[in-house]
Amino acid sequence: MHFPVTRDPKNNDEIVWLDISQVVSIQTWERSVIFHTLDGEYYPVLPKISTLEKHLDHFGFRRLDRTNLVHLCKIQSFDEERSVVFFEEPITPGSKYSTVSHGERRLVKKELANWKQLGIKRKQKQQEGG
């Protein structure tokens, strides 16, 4: 079994996967859990959206409102009227979606325009045999 952990209690360091077979003891301290190994201490990644936001930014995830962290390249469409992004097309009653805050609407529109342009360029390149 493996746990996602960091070297610091606030989960600011890089996330690594700790094999439970390397753990010599587990301790609680100040409302945290600490995994002790022969080479140091590790702290489990706390399941908070703010922690995930820090670590997933370089993978293309962005917080689009207080409750949603979205993989931007997975967005297929944006309903501006309802301020909702969808991850598949065509949209059905069961389609997955996320809400978008007013402040992030401009980013979503810009990113969608960029992806569409990239898609057009890729298609042209494929048609040209490149």
Automatic annotation (TrEMBL):
The protein here is known as: LytTR family transcriptional regulator DNA-binding domain-containing protein
An example Gene Ontology molecular-function term: DNA binding
Listed InterPro entries: LytTR_DNA-bd_dom (IPR007492)
SMART domains, sorted = LytTR
Keyword Metal-binding assigned to the entry: answer is no
- Segments forming domain HTH LytTR-type: 13-113
Organism whose genome encodes this protein: Paenibacillus oceani
Q: Which UniProt keywords apply?
A: DNA-binding
Q: Does the keyword DNA-binding apply?
A: yes
